[in-house]
């Protein structure tokens, strides 16, 4: 910090010049997503803070670092805003922020009626402060292999059946998808989305890679393009999606620049498409139009004419905004694809999200969760090493998906649940056998019932014949008994007598082919062979038929009852069996969940143990004891959040997936699916950042209120000091300010020296010791890529695809070359950035707080001895507390800066190695024809052998330069913050303790006095607005006011007379304005004005100050005394103690 040139005391005319700068310095912008950090040695946002320690709690400070207790403002009313700042519950703090916005609007109202440089500066500051009320963002990255169920988990988390866009063609086409809360209340845009497309330059770079994959050595489209899983097939699918009308010949003849400049593509590149819908279904449908591929539907769409282009290869990132409750507190879920995307822009977006994530969720199917490659690799050496660099191993959560996918038999056997489930399983088998027995009996009964039906049909047919004979007899005809083979003919048009069971239409047609009058044929037989029927015989026969039918129907009803009873038994048996199976499934699901949870937690804890052991060995390998645990690893395992979820069961129990044939057996409630627990976890991740954001806002609000109180109560006549006294007090105060500024400068220099020293010891020295290891291993590493497959070498096609992609494909050549340095550097890097540097920042904050506290104590004691502006000292005490809190939060802000910049630096090693290897990659890519693979390997080995002596040093030098730049950025932030605090302290203390020179030519107008009075009234009652959010009732607030010192009301003095005279001279007709101006003069200065008379005796002024101070003492606080000794005055800390 440069030596601060203390300005002379400003007159009223010149005071407004610095008002805007001082007001602007009160409010500093802050990142919306800056999370709160509580421990220096652990990763941000997930570090467990001491639940017993409140922000600003000075407990044990004197013992820990010699830092004095924060000065407490001596109040004449309860400080509810101060209490609110010390709260921990984010919801309470956010409610306080809402009240604060209302208070700022109330302050702004009277200010808006006036225009001066001071007022304009205050209005600007208020506007900047209100801008900081935007919700914070807590980014949570979701990673997992294809088929892990990420989209289903996220949709369930959002309580939507289907919102997240998907592309089932292949994983490489996926884009990062960000889902955050939608704060719009417009019913027409409850669901919003933004689709950002890659730039033209990014598309040209990808086209270059695609053409290399697609074309063979002769420049023609490779025959492998028909294989969808080959690199040529993938490239062909992408190109045909964007350019559906291009033939293979046109593709081979084209160029990346030419393709990128085609009108239909050029108008899309670099743009953002915004979608707004009322329902998730509509938004999903529109999103799918952009992100999905229609090629997979039938496989021959491109053979048709006028096939529209597809957009998925051009998408950079998709952002969705929805009113999901799980996101309402600021969580931002990002579905991350693999970073090995051929689209460099998408890969960069995914990598940046990974770098900035507050939380990292790993998703894997529970059927493979323990042994899944994702779990093993992410908890393996590469991932653990990156966790060390980033300091985020406590940010990991694990999600086991598809818990409903389970085999009871296999699960019970593998989990050792046979004995526990044997009885229930036996009962289920018994019920299954009983059900099969009942089903067999029911089939037999149904067959018997069918036989009865046939008998009834036959009787009905006979009955119809005999009924016809009865009709003929009644008509006078002679009728005879029908033969045994006689059938009732079909009577066309007569359906009234049809029976329940008719023959088929085919049989009816057959009967129609017979003679239309069967009875006539029968009656035409010789009479001597037949006996005519009598009416009695016909009646008896018909009665017999009726009796038989009645009996058969009775027997059939009995069968129906028995069948119904069997059906109920089957249903009851199946219900009981399903209940048993559901209980067994629930038991197996729970058992498998707990087993998987424990295995993953243990694996993670062992990974942390490996990190600790590496640290211990590097610290002192002679004292390392592998049998001695450095920490409680059981507690580490317990602290890892693991969720075993069933998205389908949750959706089904929520009333969704109505078209899916899925039964949620095994889940008795939505809680059993663990999706609600995951939703709460997402909300909880935001608590630390939200609380920190609110406290910083409210603390800056406190500073603004205190500064405005000093301004609003200043009518330009507050100074009670003579010119001699002012010069004397100014010289003393400037001496204190000089010491404070020098102390601040020394603190910054010492802190930066320690930062540089830590980087040198832990990072730069490791560079020097590790580079020879990488140089020696480089050639063997390069030769290993082209070794025989049995020795771990790569297939030639994979080798070729890797060099085409600058060394990063399924294997990362660049990372492999840098690995010897990375392994050795990770622990030192973690120690420097997660332990040493945070400790340096905390020490810096403690020292500056101590300096500021010492300055305030000295200034206050001087003011008390001189009886200078006691009421102003009260405001300064509150203001200094706000500055203390700012210094307390400063290490968190600086740590955020360091974290972001060091993460950038740690990711710069591999790109620098890649740049050094570009010549080899280009040579290998250009190789064609016979023997090309051998030439590729030879060229690679030659280049590595040549470059290994320089590329590692160049890479570390680049990173070193970035870290040095980081130090300069941190120093700049330190200086800016310290200078802002110093300027505010300089302004406030000079104004209160020295005052300003009265300049009657620039006196404040009555109108401005009235405006300041209104502002001061808002400020005075503003604190009580925060009582409700703390749960304090009006009665409790009134009780808290009892016994407190009431601010004295001064008698009408010269400023009142001046205001009255000014009002009369300016012909103020507005009575309310005149009243406000007079009220301001009465409530503003507490002391009589000191006239500019050179012959005034300084002792008379001292006596007047003494008398006025003594007149403000209440009987409860001070003993009335005529003594003028300083020792007789109560200490201001004693007044504070009584107030508290």
List keywords for this structure.
37 helices, mainly alpha
- Which structural class fits the helix and strand makeup? mainly alpha
- Described by its quaternary structure, the protein is single chain
Tell me, rounded to a whole number, the average pLDDT: 77
Strand order of the largest sheet: 4-3-5-2-6-1-7-8-9
**Low-confidence parts lasting 5 or more residues at pLDDT below 50?**
1-76, 168-173, 296-302, 489-524, 997-1001, 1043-1140
What's the Cα radius of gyration?
44 Å
Work out the helix count: 37
The rounded distance between the terminal residues' Cα atoms is: 38 Å
Strand content: under 5%
- Principal-axes geometry comes out as extended
Q: Note the main sheet.
A: 9 strands, mixed
């Amino acid at each position: 910090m440069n030596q601060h040139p203390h300005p002379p005391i400003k007159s009223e005319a010149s005071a407004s010049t610095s008002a805007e700068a001082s007001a602007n310095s009160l409010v500093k912008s802050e990142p919306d997503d800056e999370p709160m950090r509580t421990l220096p040695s652990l990763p941000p946002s997930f570090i467990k803070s001491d639940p017993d320690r409140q922000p600003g709690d000075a407990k044990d400070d004197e013992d820990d670092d010699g830092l004095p207790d924060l000065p407490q403002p001596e109040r004449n009313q309860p400080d509810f805003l101060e209490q609110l700042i010390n709260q921990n519950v984010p919801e309470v703090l956010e409610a306080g922020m809402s009240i604060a916005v209302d208070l700022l609007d109330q302050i702004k109202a009277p200010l808006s009626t006036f225009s001066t440089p001071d007022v304009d500066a205050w209005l600007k500051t208020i506007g900047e402060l209100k801008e900081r009320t935007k919700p914070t963002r807590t980014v949570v990255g979701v990673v997992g292999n294809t088929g892990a169920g990420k989209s289903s988990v996220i949709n369930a988390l959002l309580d939507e059946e289907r919102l997240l866009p998907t592309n089932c063609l292949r994983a490489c086409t996926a884009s990062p998808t960000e889902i955050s809360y939608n704060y719009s209340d417009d019913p027409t845009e409850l669901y919003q989305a933004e689709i950002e497309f890659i730039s033209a330059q990014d598309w040209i770079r990808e086209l270059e890679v695609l053409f290399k994959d697609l074309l063979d050595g002769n420049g023609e489209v490779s025959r492998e393009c028909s294989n969808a899983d080959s690199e040529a097939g993938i490239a062909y699918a992408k190109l045909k999606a964007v350019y559906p009308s291009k033939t293979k010949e046109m593709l081979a003849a084209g160029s990346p620049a030419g393709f990128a400049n085609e009108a239909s593509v050029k108008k899309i590149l670099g743009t953002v498409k915004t979608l707004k819908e009322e329902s998730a279904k509509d938004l999903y449908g529109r999103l799918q139009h952009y992100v999905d591929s229609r090629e997979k539907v039938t496989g021959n769409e491109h053979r048709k004419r006028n096939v529209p282009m597809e957009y998925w290869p051009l998408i950079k990132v998709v952002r969705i905004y929805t009113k999901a409750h799980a996101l309402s507190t600021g969580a931002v879920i990002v579905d991350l694809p693999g970073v090995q995307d051929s689209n460099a822009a998408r890969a960069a977006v995914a990598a940046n999200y990974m770098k900035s994530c507050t939380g990292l969720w790993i998703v894997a199917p529970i059927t493979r969760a323990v042994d899944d490659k994702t779990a093993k690799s992410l908890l393996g050496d590469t991932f653990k090493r990156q966790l060390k660099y980033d300091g985020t191993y406590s940010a990991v959560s694990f999600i086991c998906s598809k818990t409903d996918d389970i085999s009871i038999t296999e699960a019970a056997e593998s989990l050792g649940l046979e004995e526990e489930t044997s009885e229930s399983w036996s009962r289920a088998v018994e019920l299954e056998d009983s059900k099969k027995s009942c089903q067999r009996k029911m089939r037999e009964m149904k067959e018997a019932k069918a036989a009865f039906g046939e008998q009834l049909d036959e009787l009905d047919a006979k009955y119809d014949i005999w009924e016809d004979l009865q009709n003929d007899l009644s008509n006078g005809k002679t009728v005879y008994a029908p033969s045994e083979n006689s059938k009732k003919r079909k009577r066309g048009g007569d359906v009234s007598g049809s029976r329940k069971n008719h023959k088929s239409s085919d049989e009816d047609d057959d009967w129609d082919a017979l003679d239309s009058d069967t009875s006539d044929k029968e009656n035409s037989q010789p009479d001597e062979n037949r006996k005519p029927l009598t009416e009695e015989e016909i009646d008896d026969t018909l009665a017999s038929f009726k009796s038989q039918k009645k009996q058969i129907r009775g027997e059939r009803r009995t069968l129906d009852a028995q069948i119904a009873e069997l059906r109920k038994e089957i249903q009851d048996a199946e219900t009981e069996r399903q209940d048993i199976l559901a209980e067994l499934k629930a038991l197996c699901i729970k058992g498998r969940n707990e087993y998987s949870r424990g295995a993953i937690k243990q694996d993670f804890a062992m990974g942390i143990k490996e990190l600790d052991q590496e640290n211990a060995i590097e610290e002192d390998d002679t004292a390392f004891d592998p049998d001695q645990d450095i920490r409680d690893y059981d507690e580490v395992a317990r602290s890892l959040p693991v969720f075993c979820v069933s998205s389908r069961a949750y959706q089904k129990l929520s009333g969704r997936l109505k078209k899916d044939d899925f039964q949620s057996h095994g889940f008795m409630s939505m809680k059993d699916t663990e999706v609600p627990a995951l939703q709460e976890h997402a909300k909880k991740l935001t608590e630390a950042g939200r609380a920190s954001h609110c406290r910083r806002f409210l603390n800056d609000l406190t500073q603004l209120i205190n500064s405005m109180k000093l301004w609003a109560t200043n009518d330009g006549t507050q100074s009670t000091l003579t010119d001699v006294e002012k010069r004397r007090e100014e010289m003393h105060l400037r001496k204190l300010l000089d010491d404070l500024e020098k102390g601040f400068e020394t603190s910054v220099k010492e802190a930066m020296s320690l930062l540089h020293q830590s980087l040198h010891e832990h990072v730069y020295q490791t560079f020097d010791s590790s580079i020879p290891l990488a140089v020696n291993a480089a050639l063997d590493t390069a030769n290993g890529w082209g070794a025989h497959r049995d020795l771990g070498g790569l297939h030639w096609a994979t080798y070729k695809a890797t060099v085409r992609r600058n060394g990063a494909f399924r294997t990362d050549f660049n990372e492999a070359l840098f690995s010897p340095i990375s392994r050795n550097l990770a622990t030192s890097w973690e120690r420097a950035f997660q332990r040493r540097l945070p400790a340096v920042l905390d020490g810096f904050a403690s020292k500056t707080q101590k300096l500021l506290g010492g300055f305030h104590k000295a200034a206050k004691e001087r003011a008390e001895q001189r009886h200078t502006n006691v009421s102003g000292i009260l405001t300064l005490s509150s203001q200094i507390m706000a500055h203390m809190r700012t210094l307390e939060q400063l290490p968190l802000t600086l740590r955020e800066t360091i974290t972001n910049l060091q993460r950038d630096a740690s990711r710069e090693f591999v790109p620098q190695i890649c740049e050094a290897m570009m010549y080899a990659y280009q040579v290998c890519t250009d190789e064609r024809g016979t023997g090309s693979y051998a030439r590729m390997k030879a060229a690679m080995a030659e280049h590595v052998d040549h470059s290994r002596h320089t590329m590692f040093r160049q890479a570390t030098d680049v990173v070193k330069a970035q870290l040095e730049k980081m130090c300069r950025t941190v120093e700049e932030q330190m200086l800016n913050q310290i200078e802002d605090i110093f300027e505010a302290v300089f302004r406030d203390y000079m104004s209160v303790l020295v005052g300003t020179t009265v300049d009657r030519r620039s006196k404040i107008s009555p109108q401005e006095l009235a405006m300041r009075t209104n502002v001061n009234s808002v400020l005075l009652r503003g604190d009580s607005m925060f009582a409700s959010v703390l749960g304090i009732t009006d009665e409790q607030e009134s009780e808290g006011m009892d016994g407190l010192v009431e601010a004295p009301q001064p008698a009408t003095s010269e400023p009142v007379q001046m205001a009255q005279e000014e009002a009369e001279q300016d012909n103020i007709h507005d009575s309310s304005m005149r009243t406000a101006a007079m009220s301001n003069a009465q409530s503003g200065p507490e002391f009589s004005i000191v006239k500019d008379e050179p012959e005034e005796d300084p002792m008379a002024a001292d006596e007047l100050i003494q008398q006025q101070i003594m007149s403000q003492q209440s009987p409860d606080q001070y003993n009335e005394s005529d003594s003028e000794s300083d020792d007789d005055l109560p200490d201001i800390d004693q007044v504070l103690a009584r107030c508290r």
